Amino acid sequence: MSLHQFDLDKIKEKNIKILAGVDEAGRGPLAGPVCAAAVILPADFYMEEINDSKKLTEKKREKLYDVIIENALSYSIAFADVDYIEKNNILQATFYAMKQAVEGLTITPDYVLIDGNRTQGIEFPTECVIGGDAKSQSVAAASILAKVTRDRYCMDVLDKKYPQYCFSKHKGYGTKLHTEKIIEFGPCPEHRMTFLRKILGEKNDV
Questions:
Q1: CA angle at residue 41 from 38 to 47, to 5 degrees?
Q2: pLDDT of residue 206
Q3: How many structural domains does the chain have?
């Protein structure tokens, strides 16, 4: 079954007209915000290349980002920053970003498909779909918008503000390069301190 057909079947099953897909990017990195996107695509819109953002190259994601933006009936992108993550934990920050993304849509959805197995706070009929970004075209489109937006933030904002950490290369994820830079320079305000306990502990043991 194609990702587009999954959405069409859901529209028919739920007897709805407006279906939104929601996904996030950035739950796992050591630094930077978590980003969520909500997308409403026309029911007759189909593009085979749209898939889980993790299965696509950066170049392909960038291309599809523009296509999705041009064709979406409505889309919305939201962040939960590092302060929110630290105060409320990454799960609650993800829920918050998703809620903000859905509420930012200019068209009210009849039904919302969310990637994953849990959600909270969204005031529309919702359904969690495990692996939804590889099953639903709407969710896959949201995953692409969220991933590209977050990567651009890391490249354009964080890398310029904190060039010593090379954010443009690792996007905040816990790569060998990023870990080495944290040990060399110590954390910056964009680092998630609750995520750095092991790294900073190892540094203190040296």
A1: 115
A2: 38
A3: 1
